[in-house]
Amino acid sequence: MLVYFLGFLGGIALFMYGMQLMGDGLQKAAGAKLQKILEAMTGVLAMGVLLGAVVTAVLQASGATTVMTVGLVNAGLLTLKQGFGIIMGANIGTTMTAQLIAFKLSDYITVLLFAGFLTQLLAKRRRGKYLGQVVLGFGILMLGMDMMGKAVMPLRDYPGFVDFISHFSSNPLLGICVGTIMTVLIQSSSATIGILIAMAGQGLIPLEGAIPVLLGDNIGTCVTAVLASLRANITAKRVAVAHVMFNVIGSLIFVTFMHWFVQIVMYVSPPQDIARQIANAHSAFNIINTLLFMPFVNPFIKLVERLVPGKDDSVSLRPVYLDKAMLSTPSIAMSLAVKEVVRMGNLARKDVRLGMEAIHAYDAEKIKYVLEHEPVVDTLERDITDYLTEMSSTEMSEALSARHTGLLHACNDIERIGDHGETLAKKARMIFEDEVRFSEEARQELLQLSEMVLRASGRALEALEKNDKEIAADAVRLCREVKHYQKEIRKNHIVRLNEHRCDPVAGFVMLELLINMKRVSDHSKNIGQLVQGTF
Question: Are both 64 and 140 inside the same structural domain?
């Protein structure tokens, strides 16, 4: 019995490893554009469902898609409705794995393994090597399936096990619970489906008993989104709750109409092919469930918002103030552009502030926030530049034209400030991971310099918002003070190094931090000079 159990565990391990190889190979072959595709999606729900299905089919893991979606929602790159659309699509996309393993390819496992290995070994181009990895991964996956099937074969002679499995047909809620627990433990819905197909292939479970387990499998896979949302904002948490509710409600509906659902699956599936019947049931459930939910998405989203109350604290990727209808009135369009540029500046400045704070007192959440939100600054810079470019085709007064040119330059400076905020956050993580220790004197100098940089950048943005030359002059003065103090810190630092009061590694990191802080100040000075008209 122990030998069979170990064989079963080995089969699961090979199955999951093969699935990982397939997913990695497909992802590399498709290029590193999957996240950008999701970010660029339109607000059309059907498009979100389609993209979620395609991306999950490529990744071969719905968990990866849901984690990515929760991250994008948390960063303000997707709305709750868009995120839910992608997750519905991910449920459909993950059924591709079940469809693949339902093919009876046991006799061709060695051919797949050899072909995949040979392609990966001999291919001269990366894409060919990735394709070989996909074929090799599929061969390993099928080998794991074959091992699981052989390992569970003796269970047909154990009346207690057969009797327990038979209860799934008469008590579907038991089957749902078993499927949910299995998927939560294994952390892979595809692996659970693989086990189900392997058992069904040995005559251990009929379609009527397999479907409840399959429904539980879909509920269990929600744990990935729930875990990913634990430290995310309220909108990301709502996405996770929506995912759970979507699968739970769908499962209850299908259990209620189980008899008709079984007949539909039997009608569209080959007779006597239990593997294909289970795969088709998996696909049919997720497709039909999505079609049932799509007309009611708006009220469903409102229900989720009531169940998970709280203020939406996500940052919008899209411009808040820009209105293309106002381009025909340049003065109004300019005021809107200024508001958006200042909003972008405050976001970039917040990234810098959190990066600096994480350096002084390590905080993984602050670093995570900066790394997730820095792309928002980049996207706003592109949108604002496009808006200002369209505005340039309208007639503007000389003063308005100068302001227009200044905003274009300010956008570039603010984008660079955001980049330095990201760099500071990464430095903070590196300082923590490498256990870099600064002397107390160096820590106090960095703290004072960071306060000066934030004060200078804040005054520069205030001057830009109010178009006030006096405030701009004050900002430029503060930036010069930053430059002088930064030079003083460098001198003090060299003295400490010579006197062996500072660790050389910490000293090198210190110099890099000084450079980044000075550059934030330099870009802030550029903004101040733009307002002064001396750029």
Answer: yes
Residue 519 contacts residue 449 (beta carbons within 8 Å): no
Q: Which is nearest to 338 in space by CA: 350, 320, 356, 362?
A: 320
pLDDT of residue 31: 44
Which residues in the chain show pLDDT less than 50? 31-32
CA atoms within 13 A on the CB side of 137: 22
Residue pair 255/172 in contact (Cβ under 8 Å)? The answer is yes
Range of the domain at 65: 2-307
Q: Are residues 269 and 342 in the same domain?
A: no
Task: Say which CATH number the domain at 419 has.
Answer: 1.20.58.220
The predicted-structure confidence for 327-363, as pLDDT tens digits, reads as follows 877 888 888 888 889 989 999 999 999 999 998 888 8
Give dist(CA 442, CA 503) in Å, integer: 11
Report yes or no on 352 lying in a domain: yes
Quote the number of domains for the chain: 2
Residues 270 and 329 in one domain: no
Whole-prediction pTM: 0.60
Determine the residue type at 127: R
Amino acid at 356: M
Are 218 and 285 in contact by the 8 Å Cβ rule? The answer is: yes
Q: Is residue 34 included in any domain, yes or no?
A: yes
DSSP codes of every residue in 327-388: GGSHHHHHHHHHHHHHHHHHHHHHHHHHHHHHHHS--HHHHHHHHHHHHHHHHHHHHHHHHH
The helix (H) or strand (E) run that includes residue 308 is none
Contact 330, 407 (CB under 8 A): no
Phi and psi based region of residue 281 (left: phi greater than 0; alpha: psi -120 to 50; beta: remaining): alpha
Same domain, 51 and 141: yes
Q: What is the CA angle 154-142-133, rounded to 5?
A: 155
Res 300: pLDDT: 92
DSSP code for 255: H
Q: Are 275 and 102 in contact (CB under 8 A)?
A: yes
Same domain, 181 and 279: yes
Same-domain status, 513 and 478: yes
Tell me how far CA of residue 55 lies from CA of 92, 94, 223, 290, 530, in angstroms.
11, 9, 19, 17, 44
Whole-number average pLDDT of the chain: 81
Q: Is residue 340 part of a domain?
A: yes
Contact 214, 206 (CB under 8 A): no
If asked whether residues 275 and 165 sit together in one domain, one would say yes
